[in-house]
Amino acid sequence: MERPLNCLNNLAQNDWFIGYNSYQFNQIVQELYLKLIQLSAYGIPLKIILAEREPLRFLASFIAACAANCPVFLCNPDWGTQEWQQVFDLVKPDIIWGIGNREWGVGNREWGIGNRNCEEITIISPSSPSSPSSPHSPLIMIPTGGSSGQIKFVIHTWETLIASVQGFTEYFQLKQVNSFCVLPLYHVSGLMQFIRSFTTGGKLAILPFKAVEKGQTFNIKQSEFLISLVPTQLQRLLQNSELTEWLSQFNTVLLGGAPAWNELLEKARFHRIRLAPTYGMTETASQIATLKPDDFLGGKISSGQILPHAKVTIRNQQGEILNSNQIGNITIYAQSLALGYYPITKENQADFQVDDLGFLDTQGHLNIVGRNSDKIITGGENIYPAEIESAIQATQMVADICVIGIPDKHWGQALTAIYIPKQLDTSALKIQILLKDKLSKFKIPKYWIPQQNLPRNSQGKINRQHLQQIAREFLQNPIT
């Protein structure tokens, strides 16, 4: 397995970083690596918070930290005060890299390499770092958060990330991976695009999604590149004919981060987008199942086959393995599996039972049907929102939809649809009429709450706690 500096040296003569100066990237990594080695002279690696906005500096400092065996915490520079307080209380960093330190006023800005190539680093307390002991190196902490918004850091290593790359390249039969990245680099979906290109000698192009939406692109041969999107991004691109044509030229369009609705998938298939719906998470260093583009264009609907570095079993509540097409709890075994959540490591973590429910069909394709935690029980019936949301999306009368359950003294929970209408005159009654032949009566939401937008994060995941609050406020003061 190639180490970070070896990969850097392999790329030294290549102009691989499209839109940026590849030579400058190499120089920054070397300078920062040497400085970190000097600062870690006592033999204890320093904990680094990385909150850099600029892609070249972010990635250069990430590789330098990995090469110096410094535990590095990837952070969103746009977090607010509350989120940063969570992070500081949890991490107690020795070094803060990037713009986040300006808001906190801590430590001494001791170095920035003349501020030519990078933002300053704030050194807080290099004499007393502490981090989980681990035989692996380096430790890479990637943020994740549930619907509550509480930030957690998933503990990965260079080894787990490389295992993900190896499974990916073997599955797609690629020697080099060229990536076009529009996703945040501090998120696993953005970071892994860089790791795949960096470790396989491929090319990397990075642009903010907003720039792509405005029509800004690089002069590249899309048929040689892979791009990763979340469903809301795909939806926006498909609303623009020129960007739809641009997207259709990519070798593969990986789609993940949140469930995609049937209408969106059908539209992508109509435009011959080489879509590859995926299933994975931060804990598995991105996808462990992917539907290949040719299967998608052929009409297959699933999350695809399991990648070579992973194994999935479907189990019932008693832990027994189920047969094909039987729905149960998903358990993942993967070489890319994280070591735990900071600061607690699980050195011998063999499997990971997730909250998702699904089944493996007779072809070995993984199919996701919903989440245990999202299950709604109304009148004794178990209901999974994904089915209802898909049916509502198929009416083509909503721009976005989320179905939740709210407490009800008669039914236990009442189905509630919170949605964005496509047209001003779109009423809940019109939607319900269209649903009568598609859903059982008990699956049609009792309450309908129109909104101008839904609380989704940059990956398209919904904040269900926020939706509960919206529902409570609406039902207390309904629109008349």
Structure write-up:
By secondary structure, the chain is α/β, with parallel strands linked by helices. The chain folds into 3 domains: 4-131, Rossmann fold (3-Layer(aba) Sandwich), CATH 3.40.50; 157-372, ANL, N-terminal domain (Rossmann fold, 3-Layer(aba) Sandwich), CATH 3.40.50.12780; 375-476, GMP Synthetase, Chain A, domain 3. It contains 15 helices and 26 strands. The chain has a 9-stranded mixed beta sheet, sandwiched between helices. It has an 8-stranded mixed beta sheet with strand order 1-10-9-11-12-13-14-15, with helices on both faces. Strands 16-17-20-21 form a 4-stranded antiparallel beta sheet. Helix 2 crosses helix 3 (55-67) and helix 6 packs across helix 7 (188-200). The longest helix has 18 residues, at 22-39. It is globular and about 65 Å long. The model is unreliable at 100-119 and 125-136 (pLDDT under 50).
How would you briefly describe this protein structure?
The chain is α/β, with parallel strands linked by helices. It is 30% helix and 26% strand.
Proportion of strand residues: 25-35%
Helix count, DSSP H or I runs of 4 or more residues = 15
CATH architecture of the largest domain, by name, is: 3-Layer(aba) Sandwich
- What fold name stands as the CATH topology of the largest domain? Rossmann fold
Number of self-contained structural domains: 3
Mean pLDDT, to the nearest integer, reads: 87
Quaternary organization: single chain
Q: Within the largest sheet, what's the order of strands?
A: 5-6-4-2-3-7-8-18-19
CATH class category label of the largest domain: Alpha Beta
Q: Which structural class do you get from the secondary structure elements?
A: alpha/beta
Shape: globular
Q: Largest sheet at a glance?
A: 9 strands, mixed
Instruction: Please give the number of β-strands.
Output: 26
**Helix content class:** 25-40%
Can you tell me the CATH superfamily of the largest domain? Answer: ANL, N-terminal domain
What is the distance, rounded to the nearest whole angstrom, between the alpha carbons of the first and last residues?
A: 64 Å
User: Are there runs of 5+ residues with pLDDT below 50, and where?
Assistant: 100-119, 125-136
